[in-house]
Amino acid sequence: MPMVIGKDEAENVFNRYLSERMASLDRRDGYGLAAVETGELLQESLARIGVAKLRGVDTPEFSFGRPEFFVPAERDQPGYPRSFAVLSRERSDATNETRNAALHYFVQETPGGGWKVAARSWVNDKPLTPGKNDSKMYRIFGFEVRDKEIAAIGRDASGAVVLSPTAGEDRKVCGRYAEYMSFTAPDGEPGSENFVPGELTGEVVKALNVAWEDMDGITKRYGFEVTGGELPVVRLADGKSLVTCTFVRTDYWKGRKATFKYGSRELGDVGALVGGVDKWWLDTTVRRSVTVSFEVPAAGPADVVGSNVLKARPLSAEGTPK
Questions:
Q1: Other CB atoms closer than 10 Å to residue 284's CB: what's the count?
Q2: Residues 108, 80 contacting (CB under 8 angstroms)
Q3: For residue 95, what pLDDT is reported?
């Protein structure tokens, strides 16, 4: 059965992407990235390079091997854009086990056009072998993942990935999540009928409610907006759907009776973008790139299986200086 891309070509596309991304980040030059990335991921990468230049630091990157390709049949994607997904991971060793995988989504917008990565997330897709340590590679990239692994990504008899027949309905989780995560601290509501309570849902809301709580007198509002094109929704072996959404998270900070600064540590990237880590500000607006993957059942609340909300990279920043 014809696939939207052959296995050898998909492997070449993946390897070219890894090589070009690593080279571009090493040079701190985004010129080559536009040929292999698109959407919010490209904007995130370019912003990362810009911050690195402002702060005079390198942009280290890790490569990945052992890719598994999940390619749809042409009958399931007869038009454009077309897409496929890749799971890849570092090798395990005698002590540490990489049960988590980077999840890349490749898209081709037009016939004959280049394949580009539109999003990257992380998931646990394998159980932990007793006696081994979880390597937790995802934390290097600012992600947290659910401890319980997702079910296997489905394939049909021909080897094609099984796409969700309810993809449009499944993707509505993106808008529900954006609404759930938009609030003024400390008034975010951890509980939601739309999401399973846990470390990547209610606990994230709680973390934003108290984030940098030592900054007394600062009003902090978080706004989430769904961005980017629609990514493929794959069906898991347990009947649930795996949905990945990209967002722009906008942080509005305003001093009520005080000014604030970002310093050079945890918020140093924002400080560099806004105009100085040691400057004092009356208010700031910071845009960040967020990617979240969900496990969506046919009925009932969805669960977050991978998220970089709390370590989202800044895209831009502006503010009113003191």
A1: 24
A2: yes
A3: 60
Total residues belonging to the chain: 322
Residues 70-107: tens digit of each pLDDT: 999 999 999 999 999 999 987 666 566 677 899 999 99
Query: How far is residue 159 CA from its own chain's centroid?
Result: 27
Say if CB 253 and CB 218 are below 8 A apart.
Answer: yes
Cα 315 from Cα 105, distance rounded (Å): 20
Query: Smallest Cα–Cα separation from 286: which of 223, 227, 229?
Result: 223
Task: Tell if the pTM clears 0.90, that is, is over it.
Answer: yes
pLDDT digits (tens, 9 = 90+) for 241-270: 999 999 999 999 998 777 888 877 777 899
Residue 180, amino acid: Y
Angstrom CA distances, 148 to 151, 213, 264, 303, stand at 9, 31, 35, 11
Task: Select from 43, 44, 24, 40 the least CA-distant residue to 32.
Answer: 24
Q: What's the pLDDT band for 133 if we cut at 50, 70, 90?
A: confident
Q: Which amino acid is at 130?
A: P
Angle of helix 7-27 versus helix 39-55 axis, rounded to 10: 20
Query: Which residue in the block uniquely carries the two structure tokens 């919010």?
Result: 40
CA distance 131 to 111: 49
CA–chain centroid gap for 210, Å, is 23
170 pLDDT more than 70: yes
